[in-house]
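STRUCTURE:
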């Protein structure tokens, strides 16, 4: 089985992002929406990859001022730490996401 590296994940991330522009596909509502299906499909088998992808989403969402995607990515990171059994780290990210969502209201 081939090991997934951060470099290959970055390539996939960028490929998916730029495909939207090249082929004129409908833009998702948020940066997170673009990758949510990937995240949901691999969160249990590759939580570290989801943490990596979520951090890339946060970087991109900051550039786009997409605060909802930032909060949703933090929530995904929290979920992955929970899956890995790191409950204190999970709670930190869940709390950050919750606080961010509350400021949106």
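SEQUENCE:
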């Amino acid at each position: 089985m081939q090991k997934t590296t951060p470099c290959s994940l970055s390539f996939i991330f960028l490929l998916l992002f730029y495909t939207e522009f090249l082929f004129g596909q409908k833009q998702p509502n948020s940066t997170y929406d673009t990758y949510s299906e990937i995240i949901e499909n691999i969160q249990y088998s590759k939580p570290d990859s989801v943490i990596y992808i979520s951090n890339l989403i946060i970087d991109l969402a900051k550039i786009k001022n997409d605060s909802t995607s930032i909060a949703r990515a933090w929530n995904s990171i929290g979920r992955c730490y929970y899956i890995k059994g790191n409950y204190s780290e999970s709670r930190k990210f869940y709390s950050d996401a919750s606080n961010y969502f509350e400021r949106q209201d």
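REMARK: The chain has a mean pLDDT of 80.
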